[in-house]
Specification:
290 residues, alpha+beta, 6-stranded mixed β-sheet, two-stranded antiparallel ribbon, globular
């Protein structure tokens, strides 16, 4: 059983600091139990210092230091479903990382939710597979049927969860670095309207080949009903790359990037950096075909 005591989370995302705790932090008391769900959660905290929570409060995910996140998590209360959700989470995330990596880079809290709702550019997206903030990773779609997801859907969901973890948690919290060479390749285009470059003004957004500029896709949440073709910001760029790499094999990736020098260079810089600095072969995740 996990008990949430009163407090306001005001410390950094690093688990080492959070576990020590300060007066203003929430305190989570984890106790072992014969219940399989709580027993797993106890073991995970004991091994990695990570709290897996299914009974939490709004303060656990909406407050990012001095800002408020436009996120709503709808809790799942059925313990059988939550237990199946842990098996799902192992399939799409846990199994791919070493114990040492989990101890150093996993979030302070992993929140299990029936649904994750996120506001993006003024529009609510009501059923996101995952989201992240300063101290947490929120995992959605933990609902009836989570234990019977077909392989192709599981494959797609793995990409979304991995992308949220690397881009929206690690990168946004400055726990992940990429070489300047990675950013320089698309530096002139980040967050810009690509209809304003290279004679693209007469093209529809879907007619502009984003791969020419080193991106996998445009920022589809930034269209806002316009005819713009908005390039991703840096977080979305990483998000899209991780999503692609963790859902495609090496051979598939090589074929996709072959015609595009910018995309090819960014792919190799990303894969090599994660392997050399973080000890993670991110492409090996894509090679795992379930």
């Amino acid at each position: 059983m996990i008990y949430i005591l009163l407090g306001v989370f005001l410390s950094s995302c690093y688990k080492e600091e959070n576990i020590e705790g300060e007066e203003d932090e929430p305190k989570y008391k984890v106790e072992d139990s014969e219940d399989p769900l709580d027993h797993f959660i106890y073991g995970f905290y004991h091994d990695y210092g990570v709290f897996i929570l299914y009974d939490y409060e709004e303060v656990d995910y909406r407050w990012n230091m001095s800002t408020v996140l436009d996120v709503e998590l709808i809790k799942q209360t059925d313990k059988v479903t939550l237990n199946e959700g842990l098996a799902y989470l192992d399939n799409v995330l846990f199994q791919y990382y070493t114990d040492d990596f989990k101890k150093h880079y996993f979030p302070f809290k992993i929140l299990l939710a029936d649904s994750v709702q996120v506001l993006k550019n003024g529009v609510w997206y009501p059923d996101e597979p995952a989201t992240a903030g300063l101290s947490f990773l929120g995992i959605g779609r933990i609902r009836n049927g989570i234990g019977e997801i077909p392989a192709d859907s599981l494959f797609e969901l793995r990409g979304k969860v991995q992308a949220a973890f690397w881009a929206n948690f690690l990168y946004n919290n400055e726990m992940m670095d990429l070489p300047e060479a990675f950013w320089n390749i698309s530096e002139d285009y980040y967050g810009g309207n690509l209809k304003l470059v290279d004679g693209n003004s007469g093209l529809k957004p879907d007619e502009i080949d984003m791969k020419k500029y080193g991106f996998w896709d445009r920022d589809r949440t930034a269209d806002n009903g316009t005819n713009y073709c908005m390039a991703p910001n840096k977080t979305l760029d990483i998000n899209q790359f991780i999503d692609m790499v963790t859902t495609h094999t090496t051979a598939e990736m090589e074929a996709l990037i072959a015609p595009y020098d910018r995309l090819k260079d960014k792919y190799h810089l990303l894969v090599n950096q994660l392997k050399e600095v973080y000890g993670v072969d991110i492409q090996a995740i894509g090679n795992d075909q379930y």
